[in-house]
Amino acid sequence: MTYRITGLDPTPYRPLFDLSDAELESRGMRRMTVTTKPSFPCRVSLLDREIGETVILFNHVSHDVANPYRASHAIFVADAPQGEYVDEVPPVFEPRILSLRAFDADGMMADALITQPGEADSGIRKLFDNPDIAYIHAHNAARGCFSARIDRC
């Protein structure tokens, strides 16, 4: 079984970095400077950003489905290349406790589990052992924010 984890497409977020702080705030967004690492996980690159870098914090609809599992939460993005990982977890997963939420083809949650740091790969494979699981969403367990989508290849 092969899986792919892809960061968000950076294209819609690049123009945000040209906006003023006031313009961002009028849209419910914030420009922030990374002050500690790891703690500013970019959903585009799937990397914790370096101290001193700029990120944009905003609310992102991560599960845009017409059912009770529609979800949104705050995420960070950097002006960075899109990350992609096949049969390996991105560095942003490694130091975190993750909530892995498994969905069927209709976007209904079919299973879920919590993984400790370093256990994400085995958790993903366990969930994908179920043929009814179409995709998985990883969330940072402590803050609840969306981290990445995981698809079967």
Describe the structure.
The protein has 153 residues and is mainly β. The protein has one domain (3-152). Helix content is 10%, strand content 35%. It has helices at residues 21-26, 120-128; strands spanning 3-6, 30-33, 54-63, 71-77, 84-86, 98-103, 109-115, 135-140, 146-152. The strands form 2 sheets. A 6-stranded antiparallel sheet has the order 5-1-9-8-6-7, with helices on one face. 30% of the residues are buried.
In short:
This protein is 10% helix and 35% strand.
How would the blueprint of this fold be written?
Elements lengths: L2 E4 L14 H6 L3 E4 L20 E10 L7 E7 L6 E3 L11 E6 L5 E7 L4 H9 L6 E6 L5 E7 L1
Main attributes of the structure:
mainly beta; six-stranded antiparallel beta sheet; 9 strands; 35% strand
Low-confidence stretches: none
Mean pLDDT across every amino acid position = 97
Strand content: 35-45%
Shape: globular
Count of folded domains: 1
- Regarding quaternary structure, how should these chains be classified? single chain
Helix and strand sequence = EHEEEEEEHEE
Protein name: DUF1203 domain-containing protein
InterPro entries: DUF1203
Pfam families: DUF1203
Organism: Sphingomonas anseongensis
